[in-house]
Amino acid sequence: GSEFTPYVGGGLGFTRFKTGDYTFTRYRTSTNKPITNSPTATTAGKSSNSFSWRLGLGVNYKLSESVDVGLGYVYNNLGKISRNDPSQNGAVHKVKFASNEIMANIKFKF
User: Fold this and answer.
1) Which of 75, 81, 90, 104 is the most buried (most CB within 10 A)?
2) Are 75 and 103 in contact (CB under 8 A)?
3) How far apart are alpha carbons 44 and 47 in whole angstroms?
């Protein structure tokens, strides 16, 4: 058989977001500096829930009967959080929380 073992996996979950008080400030995209005289506002924090999921794939290589090494990738999607911006007449801002991970591993079997 092959010394390489590919794998794929995934998962479903639940994410609870909790934020403290925060302030909206508008930034100029060309300079990434705050816009002078732009309205700002502070909003009370809140908690919300979201569906979350992950998908991963990779390959392990058998070095010996008791040691494998591998390389893998995982995408995690933790969902979105929505907040109202009182400085822009209550406009809703949605922020997506996700991550991309590349991982190396070593496994010892005993």
Assistant:
1) 81
2) no
3) 10
